[in-house]
Amino acid sequence: MAVRMILQSDWLDALRENDGHAWLSCKRLGQPSVQGELKSMGVSNDGSVYVTASEGFQVGEVTKRSIVLSCPRENCGAKFVAPTTVFQKIHSKAVSCLDVSSGGGLGVSCSTDGTMKVWEAGNGTVRRELQGHIGEVNTCRFFPSGMVVLSGGMDSQLKIWSAEDGSCPVTFRGHKGGILDTAMIERGRNVVSCSRDGTAKLWDCGSASCLGTYSDCGGPVNGCAVGVPDNSVTLGEPDETPSDREVLTEGKLLLLACEDGQLRAFGVQSRKPVFQFAAFAALNCCCFLSSVRVVCGSQDGRIYELDIRDTRQPVQVVQLSESPVLSLFRFQSEFLASLGDGTSFLPGMEETLPVQLTGPDCDPTYRVAACGSHVYTACRDGVVRKYVL
User: Fold this and answer.
1) Is the CB of residue 248 less than 8 Å from the CB of residue 185?
2) Beta bridge partners of 296
């Protein structure tokens, strides 16, 4: 994806005005943009806009919240989707992370305003604030139950919270630097955290104890993910008999996205290295797409898709821009990505167009999460946006 369509961030509001206009462009990396304009010809009874495009661009399907645009000269097209709901009152500053419960009823987010809050995913109403970290919270996510939250902060602490009453029954201590990401093992009796201290740790939630450490990561570990790999992947054997507090770690693979540009993989139970892949820049995030497919996102805007059975060369490299890839989230059989220029997108397959989520005006989108067809984004402008795909 060396060429991309770009559309004015508030295109829907702009086109709904009388004689409304919105700019668009087609950009190939390293080359000048092809500039164009959309013009509103009115609004239909169902709320969709009648639109025409300037020379060089074509308008496809238009709905109340989306528009399909193409640039035949560059053989490029995309579907742009505007948010259905904008939550502006959850936080007062940048939203650095968010997650949505498995049932889609609740959201949790943390912010540079120093708060972490649980809110109703339907309307953004704040249910409660989770207080206890010292300083900023970097990461938060729900356990599969949807009623318990795991968080990690710059205070090097990992905490478990009740989303029902806001209590914090468990605090994990052991990292020597801020915690940057977390991952669950199955239902969450064991969890993994990664840190600026250059390690990842496996924890037992019941005893609040560290069961193991994955080290030699060459610097800060920015992201982590746990998945079940194909049986052909050799995960290694543990040197010692695993603790009885270690639950369902056998057959699991841990991915670590590292600041030194390496994607490192370990057998969760064995603690043994499985493979290592070198990118051209620091890696910020990673996720599993299937038992054989994984993706990782880098500081220079590249997203590498790998087949874990042979990681010598990536299956494909997706690059929408040179802005950092800040988060990746498995969505259906593909992935959603968010970038430092505010873009969030679904790359699309051979038969489908890429999908871009609009709204942020060049403010980084730090995290993207989804439940079913509902997608939520966390942005530096302090807004949580909700989309339907």
Assistant:
1) yes
2) 286, 304
